Each structure stands twice: as C-alpha cells, then as structure tokens.
Amino acid sequence: MPLKTIKKETAEALTLEWVLHVRNYKLTNDKNHCVGCQICSLACPKEAIKVVKQPKTKGQKAEKAKIDVDLAKCNFCGICDVSCPYGAMKITVDGQHLLSVVEKESFPQLVRDIQVDSAKLPKNTAECEESCPLDLIKTTWLTADGKVVENLSTLTEAERQGVHVKVDVDKEHCPCCRICEFECPEGLIRVRKFINGKININTEKCPEGCTDCLDVCPLTGALYLSDADKKVRPNETFCVYCGACKVVCPATEALELKRTSINHTPIRSGAWNKALERMSSPVEVAKELKSKRSLKAKESVKKRIGLKEG
User: Fold this and answer.
1) How far apart are CA 298 and CA 285, in angstroms?
2) For residue 167, with 0-12 CB atoms within 10 Å meaning exposed, 13-18 middle and 19 or more buried, which class applies?
3) Cα 170 to Cα 181: distance, rounded to the nearest angstrom
4) CB 279 within 8 A of CB 271
5) Band of the pLDDT at 310, cuts 50, 70, 90?
6) CB of 213 closer than 8 Å to CB of 206
7) pLDDT in tens, 25-83
8) Could you tell me the domains of the chain?
9) For the chain, what is the mean pLDDT?
10) What are the tens digits of pLDDT across the range 176-205?
11) Interval 157-177 mean pLDDT
12) CA distances from 181 to 114, 116, 119, 126 (A)
C-alpha cells in the first residue's frame, strides 16, 4: 500500500500520485493537450476515468468535457497513457516515463505512422506550421553549417541558397488527422490514421441551431457547418473518431460514432482484447482475432516449407 496518495488539479493539469517506500508513481492529465474525448475512459480496465460533460452557458459555445480520475481505483498501469490519441495522459515512475503494460507486453502501442520529407517544403515559407490545428509542426531553417536561422530576411540571396529546411512533427501528441497532408505542399507529409471508423450525424434528430459538437472538435475541418441547412456535417477524411463530439452532444441519437479498427504494434493479450472491445465492439475484436489466427497459420506453413526445403 502507498504511504501517501495525492490528487491535485490546476488550470494546466490534473495530477495523481502514489508515494511508496521506494517508488513514486504519478499520472498527469495535461489539459493543454486533452480534448475531453472518450478513449482513455473506455480503455481503462478499472473504470477509474470519467469524462465529465461541462454545463453550457446560454449564448456561449460548448466547452470540452473534463477528465476526472478516481485515485481509489487507479493503479497507474499506463493503459490510458498508451491509448490517448493526443498524448494528454502520462505515467511516470520516479520521474521517468515508464509504461509497465508495454514492458510486460500485455498492451500494444498505437502506431503513429507519420513520414516527413522536408525537401518538399519551399525555403521561404512556414505555411505547413500553420496548417496544424494543434500546433504540432515546427519549421526550422538551417545554414549549411547547421546554425538556426531566425529571420530569412537578414540573409543575402547567396546565403539563402545554402539554407535548408527541417520540418518536425510532435508525434507524441499527434492524433494523425491528416490535415497537414492535405494542406502542406504535396509529398511533404504522409500520415496514416491509427484509428479508423464511421461517424454519422442524423440532422433530423440534431437540435435546431446546435453546434456543440463543432464547438469542441479540436480538428479544424473534421466537422463543418453546412451552408444549405446550417446543420453540422462530418468530414471523415480528417476525423480521428476520438469521440469528443459524442460526449457533448445533447441528443443521444443525433450523433453516431463507431471505431472499426486501431493500428497498433503486434500483441497477444486478453487485456488488449477487452480494451479493444470497449473502444470499438465485440465484432471488431472477432475480426482482429481471426486476422491473427490467419497470420499464425501462414507463419506455420512457411516454417514447415522451410524445414522441407532445408
């Protein structure tokens, strides 16, 4: 048992701690990155995480939901950390980022497949930085000897010719919405979504004049207001199916969201299967298990052929 437990909340973060004889466990929910989505609460095997919808003030935009964690239920396993699309949950042990469920191979990691070719960005622009709604892209100009250029206008034309551009993406906090892929110069950034699904807004059941889902969506363009009827519509090209919109929707049947697959590192774990079922559905778990069995069968055949050929 811990010697002391601590739970505190500020405008920037919610923090929980276990203070033991030899170790200190800490969970931090970074409110600057948290969007109030459903993922961590669905993934948590202890049901320790609750998504709390915020009251709406008449005439004001809806606020994103807040995360609360029950210190009595949380065991600092790290599943919320692994699962968060926005990198807003973090588990540390003695100050080090340590995920026991990953180390023990009982839970996979999400695959954030983001490829960057900095050579595709013109030297005199930072337009790609501006495309990211979460400010996760940073453009740096470097001289031939590796020095950072703060202002291109201070360089001569000859000096500019020797400058090269470096584009970095904060992958830890990137939900892989693909907005940058479409907004940046062609070929600069390639992104593969790690959560796939379906989202549908039933406009007949959507309350007149309601834009709560649009108000809280962190990804510009994933939801938009139709000019035709002033109803919110989804753009699945950019949606990451996090569920921040679903949490605040005042009409339970107006917004339907389903996660159909999650791209992750290989894993054989009952804990993951249960988490996947909560985040998606039993049908998707069955599909994944069937795929694993098929792959295992192929590997077995290859080994047998290999033995015969040897």
Assistant:
1) 20
2) buried
3) 15
4) no
5) very low
6) no
7) 999 999 999 999 999 999 999 999 999 999 998 889 999 999 999 999 999 999 999 99
8) 4-103 (3.30.70.20), 113-192 (3.30.70.20), 195-290 (3.30.70.20)
9) 89
10) 999 999 999 999 999 999 999 999 999 999
11) 89
12) 10, 10, 15, 14
How far is 277 from 288, CA to CA, in rounded Å?
A: 11
Residue type, 3: L
Residue 82 and residue 101 in contact, taking contact as beta carbons nearer than 8 Å: yes
User: Which has the closest alpha carbon to 107: 284, 274, 242, 259?
Assistant: 274
The tokens of 275 are what?
A: 């988490």
The DSSP bridge pattern shows strands 24-30 and 66-69 to be unpaired
Residue with tokens 């692994």: 82
Read off the tokens for 78. Answer: 């790290």
Question: Which distant-in-sequence residues (6+ apart) come within 8 Å of 123 by Cβ?
Answer: 141, 152, 160, 163, 164, 165
Stretch 5-29: mean pLDDT, rounded? 96
User: Within 10 Å of residue 114's Cβ, how many Cβ atoms?
Assistant: 18
Say which residue the tokens 């109803």 belong to.
Answer: 231
